[in-house]
Specification:
CATH superfamily of the largest domain in chain B: Butyryl-CoA Dehydrogenase, subunit A, domain 3
Radius of gyration of chain A: 23 Å
Largest sheet of chain A: 4 strands, antiparallel
Structural class of chain B: alpha+beta
CATH architecture of the largest domain in chain B: Up-down Bundle
Number of strands of chain B: 9
CATH class of the largest domain in chain A: Mainly Beta
Number of strands of chain A: 9
CATH architecture of the largest domain in chain A: Beta Barrel
Structural class of chain A: alpha+beta
Number of helices of chain A: 11
Helix content of chain A: 40-55%
Distance between the termini of chain B: 27 Å
Oligomer: heterodimer
Radius of gyration of chain B: 20 Å
Strand content of chain A: 5-15%
CATH superfamily of the largest domain in chain A: Butyryl-CoA Dehydrogenase, subunit A, domain 2
Distance between the termini of chain A: 57 Å
CATH topology of the largest domain in chain A: Butyryl-CoA Dehydrogenase, subunit A, domain 2
Chain lengths: ~400, ~375
């Protein structure tokens, strides 16, 4: 065992480090970047500028085909770049969905001339993409979605509603899965498209989240027309295309949110319990040790995955564990950190609160981590079914035409 | 990045798994459980012949020179089958203590015998209730004679020699090699009868100091290294428990369907899997630290220990739960893992001791 890069990996890491050092400030010692949505125009522009710079330097779309500005590099180089970028404070949060999920789906299903038109602008951050999947009636049970598309000549006419769409209000284009046939079982009646988010009939309403910010949206469709040429995959094949998108979601490497255990250690040194720094307290030490072991376990699980990738293996559903563990850990660390602060833990004023109020902020934002991008429950199902080979749930709606499936009162 | 065992070691693992599935069946384990034999002597001899006991002992001292990663691989497989053999006591503790603190002559005298399995080693640290602590060491050596009470000592009744922690005339803690023939020993009834445990009443037993390293730090060094190796046993046991629960969830039907189709069972199994994978990854880091003799070893050991103890405890108790009533019977093997989980979790000190140590080490690291 060793942690050494191959010569090729080492050379690439050095290049990445050089690029980052020349173009971005180090994260260490800086205030945490609290990305709570609510991006203003200036923040959007900073993201776009950074993405263009990164793409021009050849560090965006590393694994993509060269004809779209990629490098056709091994996925391990993407992981290495992400590792290096983690040390720097860079404006992110606008392109993860477009580049991580929309473009891989486009590349699998769109026509060559469409790829020539859309992929490069997405890679340079000139155009922002969103993913229109979840609906009020279809979240974890995505295939229960109800937004209708009806054929009208060369177009499809869309009516319905999407929800929890990150960044819809900032997006130029989106990918969408809709119901084209309600008379067949739910998975068979779906089709998949991409569309212009400025199309007439689209109304975007930001959702006021419990954390106080507005990052997600409701998106309403009223007679929105999409040309059939923008269909991805066959009519009725939308579920299969959606799976392509969701597989890529799992590969998108998420950075560990703060506060993590190091932040809790730092807090425990400064906050007093019974006249001593909290870190002297046995109960505090026990929790720190447990979270540290979990954080390290995830770090080394990622190293094992990188090793497998280096050998040309594709990461499987095993990697669902990172999000599952991190989301709860974040919520629990946030809550525990506040407990150490006593009554002052309530105060969110950044100038007075400990650690720039990151514990308070995480308390309110962390519930979404346990839901978005595969809820805790769905991830456990995935592990049980795809890794451990448990049988799928008995699905009472499986062979019923969608329009005969029972629904709750709506 | 090469954070995996080599192909050679994976081959060793496969061979070991095959061998143990034939030679260390539940029937073999149950002979110790039912106190028909204190340990599986035939298995022990076969392991010695294959070079397992001396896997990490240098070849110059009669070992196989497979290195620590090889020993880790074997530990996982032995944990998987709840092997009733004095492997940890001999290979992780006695041999490691002699390597850490013995003179050249002591190494030459004892390591080859441990490696060939003709001498079983023990490690006598605890003096009754309580986690490892220098304050708990009251055994004393005076004029080469050791006096004190040590319990529990794993494999103490079947061991030929023991490494005993005691204080010298000046009160300093050191490790002493005691030949056990003639020492008053008593078999203890324990939660896990598949492993022998003894009480030693030492009354002026001849004791030979291991003088090359003294003080509590050498005790801790031995514990740290053993914690990593034992973490692999725990990972093996957790994996076997999860597999057992998984297989039962597929074959057992209730309400007209396999119980594994219920989310209550799926989510339980998923949680066991997550804990196991985290523990495995932390154990791998420990294996790297052992083989590289890295400065990070103590922190890696505490982390691996905390993680592995949690994973095995969870997997062994939820395996019983997945089985329901049948899992609570003597006849079904769930309890072998449950017992072993606690035995391994308490040997070397319980979870609170290691969690506290982990944070101590974090504080030291952050202060540096």
């Amino acid at each position: 065992m060793d942690f050494n890069d191959t010569p090729e990996e080492a050379a690439f890491r050095a290049e990445a480090r050089e690029f980052l050092a020349a173009n971005a400030p180090l994260k260490s010692g800086s205030r945490p970047v609290l990305r709570l949505g609510g991006m203003d125009a200036a923040a959007v522009q900073r993201c776009k500028d950074w993405q263009a710079k990164k793409a021009d330097a050849g560090f965006a779309g590393l694994t993509w085909p060269k004809r779209f500005g990629g490098k056709e590099a091994s996925p391990i180089l993407q992981v290495i770049y992400n590792q290096e970028e983690e040390d720097y404070s860079v404006p992110r949060g606008l392109f993860e969905i477009g580049l991580g999920m929309c473009m891989p789906t486009m590349m699998a299903y769109a026509k060559p001339e469409q790829l020539d038109r859309y992929v490069r602008p997405a890679l340079r951050g000139e155009e922002v993409w969103c993913q229109l999947f979840s609906e009020p009636a279809g979240g974890s049970d995505l295939a229960a979605l109800r937004t209708r598309a009806e054929r009208d000549g060369d177009d499809w006419v869309i009516n319905g509603q999407k929800i929890w769409t990150s960044g819809a209000h900032l997006s130029d284009f989106g990918i969408i899965v809709v119901r084209t046939d309600p008379n067949v079982p739910k998975h068979e009646g779906l089709s998949f498209f991409f569309l212009d988010m400025k199309s007439p009939g689209i109304e975007i309403r930001p959702i006021h989240q419990m954390s106080g910010t507005r990052h997600f949206n409701e998106v309403f469709f009223t007679d929105v027309r999409i040309p059939d040429t923008q269909r991805l995959g066959g009519v009725g094949q939308g579920w299969k295309v959606s799976i392509t998108t969701l597989m890529n979601e799992r590969l998108a490497v998420g950075e560990v949110a703060r506060p993590d255990v190091d932040d809790l250690v730092a807090l425990s040194r400064s906050v007093m319990v019974d006249g001593e720094p909290a870190i002297r307290n046995g109960a505090v030490r026990e929790r720190i040790a447990e979270w540290y072991a979990r954080s390290q376990g995830l770090k080394f699980t990622r190293f094992r995955m990188m090793t497998a990738m280096s050998k040309g293996e594709t990461p499987g559903p095993e990697n669902s564990i990172a999000k599952l563990v991190n989301a709860s850990k974040l919520q629990d660390i946030a809550s525990f950190g506040l407990d150490l602060m006593g009554n002052a833990g309530l105060v969110v004023d950044e100038d007075m609160a400990e650690a720039y109020a990151m514990f308070q902020s995480a308390l309110l934002s962390s519930p979404s981590s346990r839901i978005a991008g595969g809820s805790d429950e769905i991830l456990r199902n995935i592990i049980a079914e795809r890794v451990l080979g448990m049988p799928s749930d008995i699905r009472v709606d499986k062979n019923k035409p969608f329009n005969q499936v029972p629904t709750g009162a709506r | 990045m090469n954070f995996d065992f080599s192909d050679d070691l994976k081959q060793l693992r496969d061979q070991a798994r095959r061998f143990l599935s034939e030679q260390c069946t539940p029937e073999v384990v149950r002979r110790s459980l039912d106190e028909q034999e204190p340990y599986a002597a035939d298995l022990w001899r076969a392991m010695a012949d294959m070079g397992w006991i001396g896997a990490a002992i240098p070849e110059e001292y009669g070992g196989a020179g497979l290195g620590y990663e090889g020993l880790c691989v074997l530990a996982e497989e032995l944990g998987r089958v709840v092997a009733p053999v004095p492997f940890a006591s001999t290979a992780y503790l006695a041999a490691e203590a002699i390597l850490a603190a013995g003179t050249e002559a002591q190494k030459r005298a004892w390591l080859p015998k441990l490696a060939e399995g003709s001498v079983i080693g023990g490690f006598a640290l605890a003096e009754g209730t309580g986690n490892p602590s220098p304050n708990a060491i009251r055994a004393r050596v005076s004029g080469g004679r050791l006096t004190g009470t040590k319990w529990p000592v794993a494999d103490g009744n079947i061991a030929d020699i023991a490494i005993v922690a005691a204080r010298d005339e000046s009160g300093e803690i050191a490790l002493y090699l005691v030949q056990l023939a003639g020492v008053a020993r008593r078999e203890l009834k324990t939660l896990d009868p598949t492993r022998d445990q003894a009480r030693f009443d030492l009354d002026g037993a001849a004791a030979e100091k291991l003088p090359q390293a003294v003080g509590w730090s050498v005790v801790q060094r031995v514990l740290d290294r053993a914690a990593i190796l034992m973490a692999f046993e725990q990972v093996g046991g957790a994996d076997a428990s999860l597999q057992m629960a998984r297989n039962y969830a597929l074959e057992r039907f209730a309400f007209g369907r396999p119980i594994g189709s219920f989310q209550a069972i799926k989510h339980k199994l998923a949680d066991m899997y997550v804990a196991l994978e985290l523990a495995r990854s932390n154990a791998y880091y420990g294996a790297w630290a052992l083989s590289a003799d890295a400065a990070e070893l103590p922190l890696a050991a505490a982390t691996a220990r905390v993680s592995a103890t949690e994973a095995f405890h969870l997997a062994s108790k939820e395996n019983i739960q997945t089985h329901g009533g049948i899992g609570f019977t003597w006849a079904v093997d769930c309890h072998l893992f449950y017992r072993r989980s606690k035995q391994l979790g308490l040997a070397l000190g319980g979870a609170p001791f290691w969690k506290n140590r982990l944070v101590d080490l974090l504080e030291t690291r952050n202060a540096a």
